[in-house]
Write a structure and sequence with these properties.
Blueprint lengths: L9 E4 L5 H8 L3 E3 L9 H7 L5 E4 L7 H5 L6 E4 L9 H6 L3 E3 L6 H16 L2 H9 L19 E5 L3 H12 L3 E5 L6 H7 L1 E3 L2 H7 L2 E4 L13 H6 L4 E5 L8 H10 L2 E6 L18 H4 L4 E3 L8 H19 L16
Pfam families: 2-Hacid_dh, 2-Hacid_dh_C
GO molecular function, one term: glyoxylate reductase (NADPH) activity
Protein name: Hydroxyacid dehydrogenase
Length: about 350
């Protein structure tokens, strides 16, 4: 108990964070941290949230009715993330619980990774690395020929902040950029990015590389399935840094196996999409076994100083709610409580 006989403001953190974040919260809160490499089990999370006032969560966490029902003191779910489809926002709002997230700190790192994955596929970098490590490399040979981004027509599906950042980077490589989005860019912005708006069917038919930066919605789930993949020119490349379930991963495996799809790179996977009730529980083994693939474990956000800024922003949202103020970036609106 504190000086006035009320319990301390208790913050449960589900994954490891920087020590600076623990110090920031620890000045005025009781912090229940998890500084191990692994996330909390469901049972551990439910147990720790019984008397939590704040919950600082990450993408692997799932905040649902069960958790909220066992957290009677909870006042904020602070997401150290940009998207929040793993949080039941409506249920939080009904209970007067804020949901905060972090805006626009991942855009640059994610766009950098998207272009890096595209270049790696295009230039056969993973295969080249394996070849050198195998001991068979004895000097230059005419093999592993790739393309290049200069002059390549690249389609971007989803022209939000990340899509625009990808377009800006591709322009520096002299690529031609097409895009599709429900809300086309203003003419001036499109001209500045060198990007042309086209319908999805046109983008697929005319692009030899496609970058997915779209969010997961009812409309985008499995947007890239068997029909969309067949519309791509043979040998095209596909990069996904949006949400895993925007593609049908089994259909991608089929397209790779047939040779129609030239390569697939992803930093996101369908099994991570907690908002999708029908999500798989792992990455399809057939997809993992295909040649011409390159997979990374959410490296889009794995930039040290950016991660610290994200965690700090989430922690400051917690402190704002503790002080009776709304968080600066929230997914909902509730009445502040003291």
């Amino acid at each position: 108990m504190n000086a006035v006989g009320t319990p301390p403001f208790r913050v449960v953190i589900t994954h490891r964070v920087h020590s600076e974040v623990l110090d920031l919260l620890g000045r005025s809160c009781e912090v229940v941290a998890n500084q191990t490499p692994e996330g909390l089990t469901r049972g551990e999370l439910l147990s720790r949230c019984r008397d939590a006032d704040a919950l600082l969560v990450f993408m692997p966490d799932h905040v649902d009715e069960e958790l909220l029902g066992r957290s009677p003191r909870l006042r904020i779910v602070a997401g150290a993330l940009k998207g929040f489809d793993n949080i039941d926002v409506a249920a939080c709002t009904a209970r007067g619980i804020w949901v905060s997230y972090v805006e626009d700190l991942l855009t640059g790192p994610t766009a950098d990774l998207a272009v890096g994955l595209l270049i790696a596929l295009d230039r056969h970098i993973p295969a080249g690395d394996r070849h050198v490590r195998s001991g068979r490399h004895q000097g230059w040979r005419p093999e592993l020929y790739g393309g290049g981004l200069a002059g390549r027509r690249v389609g971007i599906i989803g022209m939000g902040a990340v899509g625009r950042a990808v377009a800006r980077r591709l322009r520096a490589f002299d690529a031609e950029v097409l895009y599709t989005d429900p809300a086309p860019l203003p003419a001036g912005d499109a001209a500045e990015l060198g990007a042309r708006s086209v319908p999805l069917e046109t983008l697929l038919a005319r692009s030899t590389a496609v970058v997915l930066t779209a969010p997961l919605t009812a409309e985008t789930r499995h947007l890239i399935g068997p029909v969309a993949l067949q519309r791509l020119p043979e040998g095209s490349l596909l990069v996904n840094v949006g949400r895993g379930s925007v593609v049908d991963e089994n259909a991608v495996a089929d397209a790779l196996a047939s040779g129609h799809l030239g390569g697939y790179a992803a930093d996101v996977f369908a099994f991570e999409d907690w908002s999708d009730r029908g999500r798989p529980r792992d990455i399809p083994p057939r997809l993992l076994a295909q040649d011409g693939t390159l997979f990374t474990p959410h490296l889009g956000s794995a930039v040290r100083d950016v991660r610290l800024r994200i965690e700090t922003a989430a922690a400051r949202s917690v402190l704002d709610v503790r002080a009776g103020k709304p968080p600066p970036v929230a997914a909902n609106r509730v009445n502040p409580r003291r």
